[in-house]
Amino acid sequence: MRKTLMIIFSLLVFALPLSAFSINSLNTTQQVDVSRIIRKNQSIWKKQIQNVDIINSEEFDDNNSFVATSLDQLRNHSKSVIKGTIYKLDKMNSPKNVAYTKASVHIDQVISGDKTLKNKTVYMALVGGLVSLDSLHNSDHSGDFNHDVLVKNDQAPLPNIGSKIITGLVPNVIDEPSEYNDALRQSGFTIHNSYAVDNQQYNLWIKKSHSQKFVLNNPKVKKQSFEKKLQSLTTEINKKYNH
Predict the structure, then answer these.
(1) Which of 37, 149, 12, 158 is closest to 89 using CA atoms?
(2) Number of C-beta neighbours around residue 38 at 10 A
């Protein structure tokens, strides 16, 4: 009996390291695949935007959105608060006079809200991006107007592919009639695969690939009265979720 137990113990000793090795190998392979996909998507997007004219803008459709200045406010006002990775950026259909970009975001962590979102990839419409010049100026002309331009919103720069983000999400109410919802549906957005950022102007934090911490994705927030509160919230976010 004792001899049998010793044999079983020896088998377990050798089997456990092999199992651990297999799991680690799988994780490494997955990481390599993800990195390869991100590099490929970065290259595609770079080619699309490298030779286009740039138009700077500070316009937002909803300037009266609630601004969360604490974690409790962020959690309570949003359906979910997530940490994710920008995997892909695509040109999408946009309403007249504005530009949006279709961002594919992998949910790495659900900070609060719907836990089933973890490890899913969802679409978000981010302000700015590629749009035809005639659409941007609501023009029926062709020729010089019939080419793409890159709209850069100075209060919400487009995150780089590969960047980490932290933000609150709310469901897209795509069934309601509007030019914006028409554009979302035409670009493949549904109520099941997409969410809206809950105040992209002031409640979106970005951590670039080689950065050490998350920063608020609005370089012009210094003009606002709630700047200090947002700075404190950014510090708290880094303490709790920058890992």
Answers:
(1) 158
(2) 20
203: tokens are 């409640």
Q: Is 24 domain-assigned?
A: no
Q: Is the pLDDT of residue 144 over 70?
A: no
For 146-180, the pLDDT digits (tens) are 689 999 999 999 999 999 999 999 999 999 999 99
- Parallel/antiparallel/unpaired status of strands 204-207 and 215-216: antiparallel
Residues 81 and 74: beta-carbon distance below 8 Å: yes
| 159's tokens | 């995150």
The full DSSP string for 120-189 is -EEEEEEE-EEEEHHHHTT----GGGSSEEEEEETTSPPPPTT-EEEEEEEE--TTS--HHHHHHHHTT-
Number of domains in the chain: 1
What's the DSSP call for residue 52? Answer: S
Is there a domain that residue 36 lies in? no
pLDDT reported for residue 93: 93
Its pTM stands at: 0.83
What does the radius of gyration of the chain's CA atoms come to, in whole angstroms?
22
Q: How far is CA 13 from CA 6, 26, 52, 142, 227, in A?
A: 11, 21, 61, 73, 57
Range of the domain at 115: 46-59+66-139+146-242
Sort 48 into a burial class: Cβ within 10 Å, 0-12 / 13-18 / 19+: middle
Query: Is 70 inside any structural domain?
Result: yes
Residue 9 CA to residue 37 CA, distance in Å, equals: 43
Angle at 55 between CA 38 and CA 95, to 5 degrees: 80
* 40 inside domain: no
- Distance between CA atoms of residues 165 and 159, nearest Å: 8
